[in-house]
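step 4 of 6: structure.
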Amino acid sequence: MADQELIEKVRAMVGREYGRVYAWDKVNAPMIRHWCEVMGVSNPLYTDPAFARDAGFADVVAPPAMLQVWCMAGLDMENYPPGSTDENNFEVLKVIEPYGYPAVVAVNSDLYFDRHILAGERLYFTSKVDSVSDEKTTPLGTGFFVTVLMAYFSETAEGKPDEPVGKQLFRVFKFKPAQRPKAEEKPAGKAEKPAAKRPLPGISDDTRFFWEGCEAGKLLIQRCTGCQTLRHPPAPVCAKCHAFDWDTVEASGKAELYSFVVMHYPEVPPFDYPNPIGLIELDEGVRLIAGLVGIERDELKIGQRLQVEFERFDDQQTLPQFRPVAE
Amino acid sequence: MTSMKTRAFAETNLGEQLPELAIPVTVTLINGGAIATRDYFPGHHDVDAARELGSPHIFMNILTTSALVQRFVEDWAGPLATFRDLRIKLGAPNYPGDTMTFSGEVSERGESDRSLVVSLKGKNSMGNHVTGQVTVVLPA
């Protein structure tokens, strides 16, 4: 639970407006060229004055995604150029921090462009605290989403009003991390990249045969040895004759699509989306749920013929999947 | 490489898929991107500082992500497509050694002002690093 005093303090700051923050440098070709080089942006509009002139611009154009760059403070992150406000438009973060929320990440940046910006223009922005969320918990940790709106302007000659060139919504998450870093650090070198894996099934004595069958490339179905009825998903007792004894038969893998869903949202790694999932009726008569592969999302049809195949995931589990086949 | 020809509005279709773009995420890109965007937040260039924040390595800053989103759309739309907005939301961080693959499609098409909205995502091994929408205006 967030501290009530903190909540009152940050609520009081919502709506607060902050004065101008100027750009250290006018929009300029060297910074643009450097940015394009690093980002792999090859549009000559940004780097070739002749191309820009042919396109009707007096000089090279600033890449739109650079809008925020021009007014960044630089190495000392609070050192703004002369004439800028002394206030920090993200001071709300400093209010939140001592209550136990040390970390910050940017989560949203919405840029809006009123017009092209050319080399030689001098920009500044003004800003406003738009909102502070309730305390939220995300995979990163627990904290607050802070949203600040910025309005960007280009200075014009004395006497004329400055010209709006764009706007930005910038949202950060100010939080206490869910996990503290390990005390033992790995030696420098390869990054430890926590790749997402498919969840593993819970395996019981009733279901082990099925997963072991998959590992062996066989689709095994439970059969009551009392009345020969097939059943899936696996269960300890026959629903028909209530016998406890069972064995398995290997299904042909031939099947048809009984029903399906296509998952679009939310996107959970490591699955690909849209993610088609079938309720599949095996020719032997039982149904099971499995992923569908080799299917265009618009071409799924109830009743279409399918064939099982097996795919190994994350080097730790093998799953049956079904692919359309001709009649 | 950006095509030197700007796509005409009439050449585009609703639902049209953009060519995928795979970006190798390297220490150099994350560092270079942070500095090219004048973002000296230590988590983007100092691995010890990043670990203090609970990250396994330095992570890409949002201004670099915006730049790469611009590149992805512009590579398809051409050099004289005019950007009207660029809206992104970050998810899984971009750490060195990963690859981010952009995919996207034309999700809205405004005949009256020749505007297109491209809905896109940049996916890495942990999920979507970025999802977003970009509005561009194309020549007739």
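step 5 of 6: annotate
 - DSSP finds three helices and five strands in chain B.
 - The radius of gyration of chain B is 16 Å.
step 6 of 6: archive
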